[in-house]
Amino acid sequence: MSSQDLEQFRIFNKKLETEKDIKPILNAIKSLFDYKPAAEAKITLSNVGISNIVRCLNVQDKSNDDLTCEVLKICFEKFGVGDVVKHFTSHIMYLLRHEKNCVRRLAVDEVYKSVIADVSLLPVPEYIDIFVAVAQMVCDKDVGVANKAIIITSNLQFEAYPKVLEEMKIALEHNSSSKCNAYEVVINISLKSYELFKLSVDNGYIEHMVEELKSNDVLYQLNILELLSRLSVKPYGINYLVKDGALERITALIGDLRNNPLGGLLLPGYIKFFASIAHYYPKEIFEKYPIFLNSLFNAIESGEQTVLPVALDALGFIGITIEGKLCLTAVGSPFIQAIEKIGQLIRNSPAEIKIRALYCYASLISVEKDTPSQGPVDHRVTLMTREWFRSLNKESDAMETLLGICKIPFPDIKLAAYSLLDAVCQHLWGEELVARVAGFVEFLLDRSINEPKEAKEAKYDIIKRLSQSSVFDDNILTRFKTYVKEGPFYSDTTLQVAMEEGN
């Protein structure tokens, strides 16, 4: 800024100390800096400071608070990431604790930008007070401020966390929403390393979370289960829950749901919790906590709409791994009955359930995600998945049934059906079924069908897979390979335009 602008800002700054009507002065400062180059404005603001602007927030008349925030925001925008906190540390501390929402939001945004850009911009020894102040804001009544505080306190350097975790205890004295915010920070920190998890345990947070599952607040319980499920996928997390007896206590709570008038609302959360663990440790969960499997299969068999979508997702998540498939088949008839029920749901349910059931089936049939590249598929899995697929329609031909579903014009159903078809075509027996069913190859190769982009890409991937198959004759393989070469979005119009452009 020119020396004239610098002097002008000094005059405005001085007037803020003496004038009673500060609104015109704040507007003048706003106009002065609004369009000034950042480099020039930064020098002036660094030299003169912002103390008098900040002081405008500390007067009895609060009518100018919003305008003061606007002015401070313009001033802060002239600085690089992290520089505002470095240049005006004491002011940021004051702003973080201000009673006005817009003021706290302004301050926490500056800390947020610094931490997200580069956590090392604010070294812990110098700025620990800032981090402590932000940690206390996870209880903030302004949801936006609280959410930013959660992100900041979850992404600091290691040496900040002992103090941050200590501060989270403040939230435990507040309402369930604030406690959930604190728990989220605790879990985010615990997932970073065993040492930090141990620190969370020593502070009593994990035990407190498990005990809070006895609350009558349904949403609160579900949030805790969601957070604990994230922790349980870590070996040290699940080991603690088992050794501490927490998993046993959570299992007992499932048994009590039938006597709880709100049990129907809670059951989906408990199923998701145990499914997240069973995805990684199916054998141990099936053996030690059979009540989970019983609840899962009962939920599928009952067809209860409040829990069925979650149950389908859970079964698919468990069965997507090879170990999960083998453990499920070892369960015997309850699982077979569940498979048959899912086949019925695919054939006869409304769109939402049909789609969830198709994706569940696809996860159970698929082997690609859990099989080494080009490696052989366990022959037991080949036999199991073939039998499971037949349950799609035992009274008719399962592959003809799938072809019919693939032809349904609704995009979401079609995409889910293609997901199942792709899973089926990961097996030799699946390729053979495609080759056997009249009209299936023609349907796949028909580019005249009006399909959304995602469906065209999904069908293209299936054809690309089948183009490497050994079960089709040379003519069909040639057509498959031509389709692959032309790409998923080729059409006669594309060819016509290309020819016209070449003339």
UniProtKB/TrEMBL annotation:
It comes from the Eukaryota. InterPro entries: ARM-like (IPR011989), ARM-type_fold (IPR016024), PSMD5 (IPR019538). GO terms for biological process: proteasome assembly. Pfam families: Proteasom_PSMB. One of its GO terms (cellular component) is cytosol. Belongs to the proteasome subunit S5B/HSM3 family. This is 26S proteasome non-ATPase regulatory subunit 5. It comes from Parnassius mnemosyne. The lineage of its organism: Eukaryota, Metazoa, Ecdysozoa, Arthropoda, Hexapoda.
